[in-house]
Specification:
The chain has about 375 residues and is of the alpha/beta class. The protein is built from 14 helices and 11 strands. It binds nicotinamide-adenine-dinucleotide.
């Protein structure tokens, strides 16, 4: 079985990232050493614990103490109340500066656990064991942590890199197809951004990937993770190049917010965002052939139908996106497969018209 050993160099050190089918149980990741004789706090969701808690049993035997802290499913975990209850529980159970937090779950659990680890006693060490595809290829990598405010997602957070990331693709077997689809859309984003070969692999293997087959998923997870690593290494705090990762997210975030974060998964919203970016890019010279290949691949994901939405509502949510600064809107648009540009000279009217036409075609 192929295992992939990657690493992310960042301002506070190096994070080893292990990817593969069964990589958690063979301990090539040395997580057992990382927990040895420490007070360990595992943060996880009921679903993940119900399905996979036993894979952590060997680790629990090495720790000095092992506390499992359960948090709500999905976005409900990323609140100040939940973070506060975790700080209190960790303190109550004797958590010290050398204690360790293990994030065991999807991106929601990872974002919350990283935030709690980054702020508890001014920062303690944590590791990520991501259990969704989206978290394995994206959320667990790069050191961004966050909780949500009532009206603004991910608005409070800090950069705090995990000491290890162990992405075991075997854990993805239990992931519902819709969650796999959501994660694969981030893989597709990465392929359009920086890896034409990855795009071809998606065209070839999409069905196997959507079925959660660990052997098919492993090289694709590793390639997407490598893509993210190389962009984050060049721009760790999102001052310039890391903005490329926003491909498909300008409209994607507005769709999620416009639908109250309930009707579309993150990757599904990004799928519509990618289609819209292709539309804008075609007007600036993206070839019809490349645009067609991207559209055909997104079609094969069979995204859920988009409910009726007003252009004005979406434009307003786009204006609130925290990635828009005083300089105005910036769009990430594909120029060819494996390459994108950041564009800031699109007139608002042009975007409004294109969005109206896009929504009309979809209805
Ligand atoms: N920090 C970053 O750089 C970054 C990047 C992208 C996304 N995110 C964040 O990630 C979050 C989304 O993460 P997500 O898509 O992983 O969703 P999620 O964490 O909300 O998980 C979705 C559901 O899948 C369940 N689940 C997790 N693993 C499972 C498994 N192996 N089998 C069956 N069910 C499983 C979870 O319990 C949950 O109910 C968002 O909050 C987003 O803001 C962060």
């Amino acid at each position: 079985m192929t295992r992939y050993r990657l690493q992310l160099r960042h301002p506070s050190g190096v994070t080893p990232i292990h990817v593969g089918d069964g990589v958690l149980s063979d301990d090539s990741s040395q997580l057992e050493d990382w927990v040895l004789d420490r007070r360990v706090f595992v943060i996880s969701s009921p679903t993940v614990l119900g399905l996979h808690a036993r894979v952590l049993a060997p680790l629990s035997e090495r720790a000095a103490t092992w506390n499992v802290l359960e948090v709500p499913e999905g976005e409900d975990a990323k609140s100040l109340e939940v973070a506060g209850s975790l700080w209190e529980a960790i303190l109550e159970a004797g958590g010290k500066r050398d204690s360790r937090i293990l994030a065991f779950g999807g991106g929601s659990v990872g974002d919350l656990a990283g935030f709690v680890a980054g702020s508890y006693m001014r920062g303690i060490d944590y590791a990520q064991v991501p259990t969704t595809l989206l978290a394995q290829v994206d959320a667990a990598i790069g050191g961004k942590t966050a909780i949500n405010l009532t009206k603004a997602k991910n608005s409070v957070g800090l950069f705090h890199h995990p000491q290890r990331v162990v992405a075991d693709t075997r854990l993805l077997r239990t992931l519902p197809r819709e969650e796999l689809r959501s994660g694969l859309m981030e893989v597709l984003k990465m392929a359009i951004l920086s890896d034409g070969e990855l795009f071809v692999a998606l065209e070839r293997d999409l069905e196997g990937l959507l079925s959660g087959d660990a052997a098919t998923l492993s090289p694709v997870v590793a390639a997407a993770a490598e893509g993210k690593i190389s962009i984050v290494e060049r721009d760790p705090t999102e001052r310039n190049e890391r903005m490329l990762l926003n491909l498909g997210h300008t409209l994607g975030h507005a769709l999620e917010a416009g639908l109250d974060y309930r009707l579309l998964r993150h990757g599904e919203a990004v799928g519509y965002g990618l289609l819209f970016a292709v539309r804008l890019a075609e007007k600036r010279g993206l070839s019809a052939d490349t645009a067609g290949r991207i559209r055909q691949l997104v079609d094969r994901f069979e995204l859920p139908k988009l409910p009726a939405l007003e252009v004005d509502t979406l434009i307003e949510f786009m204006g609130r996106d925290k990635k828009i600064d005083e300089g105005g809107w910036r769009w990430v648009l594909p120029t060819e497969l494996g390459s994108c540009e950041v564009v800031s000279d699109l007139a608002r009217e042009e975007v409004e018209q294109a969005l109206q036409a896009f929504l009309t075609e979809l209805s």
